[in-house]
Amino acid sequence: MKNNYEVRYACSPKETKTLTTEGLRKEFLIQNLMEADTINLVYTHFDRYIVGGAVPVNTPLKLATIDPLKSDYFLERREIGIINVGGAGSVTVDGQKYDLDFKEALYIGKENKEVSFSSDSADTPAKFYINSTPAHKVYPTKKISRADAEIVEMGSIETANARTIRKLIVNSLVETCQVQMGMTELKPGSVWNTMPAHVHDRRMEVYFYFELPEDQAVCHFMGQPQETRHIWMVNNEAVISPPWSIHSGSGTSNYTFIWGMAGENLDYGDMDHCKIKDLK
């Protein structure tokens, strides 16, 4: 069993404009999240957000604290959102087991001391996608199934962005301090997500792309609306989106992505839209 972590510092719009392709990917792209019998974490200074993946195959994986937290256990001052993007599995929280099937979610509040991940089968292991944020209050742990999700249909085939949004860990369903999570599923024939694009200066965001065929890719767009950049991504990769940046993508196939947010506002609709023709 391995527990790995990496620290990323916040990057300003001015600095981002100077980055090469390699520099842009180093600052914002998160690769190799889903490795067998490993927990991989990235701690970003944007809202002290942690992005991670846990893939228990041969043994359960225990979530341990990491040095940047300066805490006795991982959730001493944090909360966590988890979505399973693999086979059936379970998360055990201070002795209480929660079964999570494909695309089911779990919110865990602060001050839970022991969290571990298990798969029902080593042949089809669970893949737990993890988002964690600082927390100021204890809220109860809660599972959110696909049936519990708030569903919104958006876009159209004509604009290549027909999609189903499933809100999973949002304040209308789960009490949280900061973390908000859900997923957007692109329908066959549609490739654009979050278009028209937007920014929300009160919250940062992370996108995790999955259900993307292995020979296909997504071009993720970021940056200030009048000075955009792009990052090519493949299946099971994530990208950090600063509060000042748009976050949108277009794939060579349809796909699904998980959005996770943190900041001072829990209102899902808190965003400043950018007109398509104004993007540069």
TrEMBL record:
Cofactor(s) required, per the database record: Zn(2+)
Pfam families, per database record: KduI (PF04962)
Family annotation (PANTHER family): 4-DEOXY-L-THREO-5-HEXOSULOSE-URONATE KETOL-ISOMERASE (PTHR38461)
Pathway(s) where this gene product acts: Glycan metabolism; pectin degradation; 2-dehydro-3-deoxy-D-gluconate from pectin: step 4/5
Keyword Zinc: yes
Catalytic activity: 5-dehydro-4-deoxy-D-glucuronate = 3-deoxy-D-glycero-2,5-hexodiulosonate
Superkingdom field: Bacteria
InterPro entries in UniProt: KduI, KduI/IolB_isomerase, KduI_N, RmlC-like_jellyroll, RmlC_Cupin_sf
Molecular function per GO: 4-deoxy-L-threo-5-hexosulose-uronate ketol-isomerase activity; zinc ion binding
Cofactor note: Binds 1 zinc ion per subunit.
Keyword terms: Isomerase, Metal-binding, Zinc
UniProt keyword annotation of Methyltransferase present: no
Taxonomic lineage from the root: Bacteria, Pseudomonadati, Bacteroidota, Flavobacteriia, Flavobacteriales
EC number of this enzyme: 5.3.1.17
Protein name as catalogued: 4-deoxy-L-threo-5-hexosulose-uronate ketol-isomerase
Function description: Catalyzes the isomerization of 5-dehydro-4-deoxy-D-glucuronate to 3-deoxy-D-glycero-2,5-hexodiulosonate.
Amino-acid positions noted as binding Zn(2+) in the UniProt annotation, renumbered to this chain: H198, H200, E205, H247
GO biological process: one example: D-galacturonate catabolic process
Family as reported in the entry's similarity comment: Belongs to the KduI family.
HAMAP family, per the entry: KduI
